[in-house]
Design goal:
The protein is built from 15 helices and 14 strands. It is of the alpha+beta class and 387 residues long. Helix 13 crosses helix 14. The C terminus is likely disordered.
């Protein structure tokens, strides 16, 4: 029987700030912008700030009205990446099959680990204790037979929670939940739920597949049918083949700001380029995946004469492809990217040895080497504003 842990760091950015600044502890901390930043939104709010009604994706202007005495910060992404690297290294000690979803959450496949580490609950308790002891942070954990249920379970008793859904109990776990707990159903879908009087997962469960597809469309109707039955409704694009690699980011809310989406795409590019260099592959084909607020998904790929040479080269190609496909004005729920038709890396033709690309690639190889030797360094290339 498969067994997955979903581990989600609690109020990550705000928790790191409270860890680094003891004077912030026990106080409402809002990361994302300063009062007066009219276009900024809340990235993370501490649990103290959430008591005032402040939440992620809320405009800073609105957050200030709700919590005028809060501590507002623009944040320090390099510091967050450093702490994330510490946590992910600990996760990796508990499972050889680790899938990082974002900077603050990951799936661990612990199938078959019971003989080494004990029952799944004991594994989770050891994981939580070690995270707290070695990083000063807390993590909420969900355990289930599939990733979709594990993801929802991790949010059931935050912060510092632990929730186990036993094998065979997936449907019983899902049916009593409010419809708002369905991971993948955005704000517009929630409005449709209200319109049709669907308050709980059980209300949705009682509808036939035909009824759901009539109300929500074929793709999302099938998704809901599986989700409320606990059947592992989400696709995480695990790429286990040797001929492609991919990474993606699912957002907790619909994104409309293109700069924020582009920044997430840049972070995905970093993940891909380090894997490309580390595994000594090369690729001439890039792909993009966009999932919108209504769960409709589209993708595209392009092949170039020359192989991807640097992080910036990869980002430029994917950014071009994104803007070619993106339907402006629509909320984005997930952004993903991939490298296809991988080949063993060889000498790249048609480039002068002193070219900018060659120097960039040497720099990236150096960064990769440092990260391999010192995992806590978590060095990254920075995104240039205005790209």
């Amino acid at each position: 029987m498969t067994c997955f842990i979903h581990a989600d760091l609690d109020a990550f950015y705000a928790s790191v700030e409270q860890l680094d600044h003891p004077e912030y502890r026990g106080k409402p901390v809002i990361v994302g912008g300063l009062p007066g930043d009219r276009r900024s939104v809340v990235s993370t709010a501490s649990y103290e700030a959430r008591q005032f009604g402040v939440h992620s994706a809320m405009p800073i202007v609105q957050a200030v009205k709700l919590c005028p005495r809060g501590i507002y910060l623009r944040g320090n992404m390099e510091r967050y990446r450093e702490k994330s690297a510490e946590v992910m290294a600990i996760f990796a000690d508990f499972s050889p099959d680790l899938q990082q979803l974002s900077i603050d959450e990951a799936f661990l496949d612990i199938t078959g680990m019971e003989g080494l580490l004990g029952p799944s609950r004991a594994i989770a308790e050891k994981l939580k204790e070690r995270i707290r002891r070695e990083t000063g942070l807390t993590v909420s954990v969900g355990i289930a037979s599939n990733k979709y249920i594990a993801k929802i379970a991790s949010g059931m008793s935050k912060p510092d929670g632990l929730w186990v859904v036993p094998p065979g109990g997936e449907e019983d776990f899902m049916r009593p939940l409010p419809a708002g707990k369905i991971w993948g159903a955005g704000s517009k879908t929630q409005e449709l739920f209200k319109k049709h009087g669907l308050k709980t997962c059980d209300d949705i469960f009682r509808l036939s597949l035909d009824a759901l597809t009539a109300l929500f469309g074929k793709a999302f109707g099938l998704f809901l049918y599986k989700a409320v039955r606990g059947e592992g409704a989400a696709s995480f694009d695990e790429d286990r083949g040797s001929h492609s690699m991919s990474a993606e980011r699912t957002f907790p809310y619909d994104l409309y700001d293109e700069f924020t989406i582009e920044t997430a795409l840049f972070e995905i590019c970093q993940t891909l380029i380090w894997r490309l260099l580390d595994d000594q592959w090369q690729s001439r084909t890039v792909s993009i995946k966009i999932r919108y607020e209504d769960f409709s998904t589209e993708g595209a790929r392009e092949t170039s004469p020359a192989a991807v040479s640097t992080l910036n080269d990869l980002y430029d190609r994917l950014l071009h492809l994104f803007h070619k496909k993106y339907q402006k004005g629509r909320g984005v729920r997930l952004i993903g990217a991939g490298l296809m038709n991988l080949e063993t890396a060889g000498v790249q033709q048609g480039e002068l040895f002193d070219s900018a690309n060659d120097k960039e690639r040497q720099l990236e190889q150096t960064i990769l080497g440092i990260n391999q030797k010192f995992p806590g360094a978590a060095l990254r290339r920075g995104r240039t504003l205005g790209e």
